[in-house]
C-alpha cells in the first residue's frame, strides 16, 4: 500500500474508477505559493518522492494539465516545487489546492506480495473452502493492519483483517483473492 492510494474520498479526482487500473495516480497536493520565484509548497502523497525531479512531466488538477518540473527541494514534510511557465507567485497561485498526478504506467513496481490499493479493489473474494464471499469494495487503514471490506451479493459486509493467517493468496490475473475465515468472521 502506498500514499498514492491514501486519498480521502473527498479528494479523489472525478472520473477515476473505484476499482481496476486507473490512468493516473496521485503523488501530491499543491498547498500554497512560497517565495517570489513561482515555487509552491506541495504535500507529498507518494512513497516515491525521489521520482519528482526537474524535467519530469506531471499532471495537475482534475483536467490533468501537463507540466514540467523546473525545480524541487525538500521543505519540512513536503516539497517546494516549481514548474516551467510559472515564475512568480501570482502565476503559480492558480495551481493552489490541486492534486498532482503521474501516469499509472510510470509507477514503480512493488516488492513481491505487496499491492497498490487500486489493484485489490474489485477482486472476487473466495474462501479456502471454495465459498464465494463477494467483492472487495473498500480498504480501511487501521494502526495495526488494513481491513478489507467485502460486499456479498446478499447479507452483511464481511470485514477481513489483512494478515497472513487470513489473506492466503492474491491472483490479479484471475481477479481473485483467496482467504481463510477465522471462527466468527462469517455471520450466518
Report what the structure shows.
With 188 residues, the protein is mostly beta strands. The protein contains two helices and twelve strands. The protein has two domains: 3-106, RimM (Elongation Factor Tu (Ef-tu), domain 3), CATH 2.40.30; 122-179, PRC-barrel domain (SH3 type barrels). The chain has helices spanning 89-92, 117-120; strands spanning 24-34, 39-44, 57-60, 65-75, 78-83, 99-103, 124-127, 132-141, 146-151, 158-161, 167-171, 176-179. The chain has a six-stranded antiparallel beta barrel with strand order 1-2-5-4-3-6. Strands 10-9-8-7-12-11 form a six-stranded mixed beta sheet, with no helix packed on it. β7 and β8 (132-141) form a beta hairpin. The protein is elongated, with a radius of gyration of 20 Å.
Key structural traits:
disordered N terminus; 2 helices; 188 residues; six-stranded antiparallel barrel; 4% helix; six-stranded mixed β-sheet; Elongation Factor Tu (Ef-tu), domain 3; mainly beta; SH3 type barrels
How is this fold's topology laid out?
Elements (H helix, E strand, L loop, with lengths): L23 E11 L4 E6 L12 E4 L4 E11 L2 E6 L5 H4 L6 E5 L13 H4 L3 E4 L4 E10 L4 E6 L6 E4 L5 E5 L4 E4 L9
Parallel strand pairs: 7-12
Antiparallel strand pairs: 1-2, 1-6, 2-5, 3-4, 3-6, 4-5, 7-8, 8-9, 9-10, 11-12
Structural class: mainly beta
Separate helix tally = 2
Distance between the termini: 31 Å
CATH superfamily descriptor of the largest domain: RimM
CATH architectural grouping of the largest domain:
Beta Barrel
Question: Which stretches are poorly predicted, pLDDT < 50 over at least 5 residues?
Answer: 1-19
Q: Strand content of the residues, in percent?
A: 35-45%
How many domains, in number, for the residues? 2
- Please state the CA-atom Rg, rounded to the nearest Å: 20 Å
How many strands, what sense, and barrel or not for the largest sheet?
6 strands, antiparallel, barrel
- Helix proportion range: under 10%
Counting DSSP E segments of at least 2 residues, the number of strands comes to: 12
The order of strands across the largest sheet is 1-2-5-4-3-6
Order of helices and strands: EEEEEHEHEEEEEE
**What assembly state would you assign to the polypeptide chains in this entry?**
single chain
Question: What gross morphology would you assign?
Answer: elongated
Average pLDDT: 85
CATH top level assignment of the largest domain: Mainly Beta
| CATH domain fold name of the largest domain | Elongation Factor Tu (Ef-tu), domain 3
Amino acid at each position: 500500500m502506498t500514499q498514492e492510494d491514501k486519498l480521502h474520498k473527498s479528494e479523489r479526482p472525478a472520473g477515476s474508477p473505484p476499482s481496476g487500473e486507473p490512468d493516473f495516480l496521485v503523488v501530491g497536493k499543491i498547498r500554497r505559493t512560497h517565495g517570489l520565484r513561482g515555487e509552491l509548497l506541495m504535500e507529498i502523497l507518494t512513497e516515491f518522492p525521489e521520482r519528482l525531479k526537474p524535467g519530469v512531466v506531471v499532471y495537475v488538477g482534475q483536467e490533468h494539465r501537463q507540466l514540467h518540473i523546473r525545480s524541487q527541494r525538500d521543505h519540512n514534510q513536503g516539497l517546494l516545487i516549481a514548474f516551467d511557465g510559472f515564475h512568480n507567485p501570482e502565476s503559480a497561485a492558480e495551481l493552489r489546492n490541486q492534486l498532482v498526478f503521474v501516469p499509472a504506467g510510470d509507477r514503480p513496481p512493488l516488492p513481491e506480495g505487496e499491492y497498490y490499493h487500486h489493484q485489490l479493489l474489485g477482486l472476487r473474494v473466495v474462501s479456502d473452502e471454495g465459498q464465494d464471499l463477494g467483492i472487495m469494495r473498500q480498504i480501511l487503514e487501521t494502526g495495526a493492519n488494513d481491513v478489507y471490506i467485502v460486499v456479498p451479493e446478499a447479507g452483511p459486509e464481511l470485514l477481513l483483517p489483512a494478515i497472513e493467517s487470513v489473506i492466503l493468496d492474491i491472483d490479479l490475473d484471475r481477479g481473485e483473492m483467496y482467504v481463510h475465515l477465522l471462527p466468527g468472521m462469517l455471520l450466518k
